[in-house]
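Q: Mind making up any chain with structure tokens?
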Amino acid sequence: MAKSFKDLDAQLSEYILNRSRISVQSSRMNSKLEKYVLRILTEVLEKLGQTRYIEMLYTITKEMAINGVKANQKRVFFEDLGLDIRNHEHYDQGLAQFKQNFSEKMADEYGKRCLARGVFVKISVIYTAEGLVVEVVNNTPVIEIEESRMREKMRKAMEYNDIAEFYMDNMDNTEGAGLGIALIMILLKSENIDPNLFRIQTSASETVARVEIPFTDNYVTIRSKEINQVGNHK
């Protein structure tokens, strides 16, 4: 269940003690949301005896949330300009304007507009003693051109172990989201975690970014469960 910040503040430690899934929902990324994300991850990982992952998971969760919030705000920006995000000419025009106008003030304003239109990001932490999943859902889909670019960024990031090296090689054609994707995958590699455990899936109504952190060899990944389900249905 997604909780408001006020409810969460009062009940967070109790929730972490008694539940295996905690979610928080917001329409913008700000210091308050960052504070709750850090507190949730810190208390969960302390409970599980896995504090070595706090900094890495906080950075990854923040990147996934920023990407989701920005994607939502971009959608609303296009709507406000009367542009069809699926039209290639409209997309190029709108994206150029979005990049040119984007600022902290605009992010705050569009956070309010997203809230008014029911557009949000939900961050969930799901965990057991065997492993932990952070899932960030934003309730807008990725369009085809963006998904294609995103997959290409993920493919390229597989080749790197250093974020500065990735940036130098790709700075001419990399948006912030591209750097965020590369950073997530490089951080996982640095902890000897399979970067394929970071995934982005999209449907007609939402986009889901997910990272899985196994703690023991007994952890069964969501990806392997899905593959088994497909195999069993053949």
